[in-house]
Design goal:
alpha+beta, Nuclear Transport Factor 2, Chain: A, 38% helix
Length: 191
């Protein structure tokens, strides 16, 4: 009788140990997932805040303020151009004439606290009243945490989204272009 009682207790103890280990493992994994979700949310909030600050700098005409969001060793890659380093990034932004408004849409954010990426859409308006130029581009930013603790743009790569094509049977006769061409004073039509 003692043998069967001991075997029963051992089986219950083994079951209790398995349940306890499984519960601890589940809580650990859930905790890690919750921590990952909290870190991802914090990163997205930080990047969205930086985007709002960049918009504010542009919208008040502070183009050097916009350039300050880029790391000193950053690269800006647009159609037909590569801009590298602090001096050239400053020049890129300060060449824009008559800044009017800038809206940045944060579409997706990922990566880590120290090395993040952002996919977004930029709608930038420049030019004098009545002759404005609106540029809409999609972009990928690579953000890098600096020794100061600030996130700065390390790589900014942007392209104009493709325009929808008309089907061959619905083509209209040739006409003047619908879009206003980029101003020759703007560094690039894409920004």
């Amino acid at each position: 009788m003692h043998g069967s009682v001991l075997r029963g207790l051992a089986a219950r103890l083994a079951l209790a140990t398995t349940v306890l280990a499984t519960t601890v493992l589940a809580l650990t994994v859930t905790g890690a997932s919750a921590q990952d979700a909290a870190a991802s949310a914090a990163l997205k909030t930080e990047i969205e805040t930086l985007n709002r600050q960049m918009e504010a700098a542009f919208n008040r005409g502070d183009l050097l303020g916009v350039a300050a969001f880029y790391a000193d060793d950053s690269r800006l890659l647009g159609p037909g151009q590569v801009v590298t380093g602090r001096t050239n990034v400053n020049e890129y932004w300060t060449k824009l004439k008559a800044p009017r408004s800038w809206t940045l849409d944060v579409l997706e954010v990922g990566g880590s606290r120290d090395s993040a990426w952002q996919w977004g859409r930029s709608t930038l308006v420049t030019g004098p009243e009545g002759k404005t130029n609106t540029s809409i581009v999609e972009f990928i930013l690579l953000w890098k945490r600096q020794p100061s603790g600030d996130l700065k743009i390390y790589v900014d790569m942007y392209v104009s989204p493709p325009r929808p094509r008309k089907e061959p049977d619905k083509l209209s006769p040739p006409s003047a272009p619908a879009a206003v061409p980029a101003s020759p004073s703007a560094p690039d039509a894409g920004r």
